[in-house]
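Lecture 7 notes: from sequence to structure.
We start with the chain below.
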Amino acid sequence: MSKLAIIVSLCLLAAADAGAQSLGFGARLSFVQPDLLTDDTNRVSGVMVRLRTSTKTALELSYDFDTPVAQNLLGETKDSPFQGSLLLYLTRSALAPYLLGGIGWQSETVNTIQNGEVVGSTTSRESRYHAGLGAEVGIGRHAAVHVDYRYIHLGANDDADSESGAIPIPGLRWIQDKMGLSHKATAWTTGVTVYF
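Predicted structure tokens for the same chain:
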């Protein structure tokens, strides 16, 4: 089955209960560990839009502002990730746990610095998958706070700086190892959404 067919199927599933729809806008803060070989963590702020498409599903679009990922005497690397996610709620209550997964588009800019000034710049773009789990806590009828943990840059285990086992869930690690899945980064994300 093609990726497009899977995405269309998920969107149709998400739109099954149109009576539960509401649109929310919010701000988010992520603590990203971009390199699994170090303990470095970047704090990244961003914005998001969440569309509750049914009582069990929601779609999220998020954008994180340009953030320096690495800096040295020769240059600076900046990251601008945009993510689209499908959230599957396990239950809808005051505390609503969910699973999430989706695709992100990464725009990475490397600025070359000489004598303290930027003398050149190159930008590369690529798509990356992500998955995770989290929970949303309602604040009245029109607002919610969420916290989730995301495995980002999911893919085949063919890169030296990736960690084997896409999502280390107890008892399922062997399946992921057999499939050759890996991840290159992780992130804790929290945010506040106001719904209309």
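Points to note: The first strand starts at residue 22 and ends at 33. The chain has one domain: 3-195.
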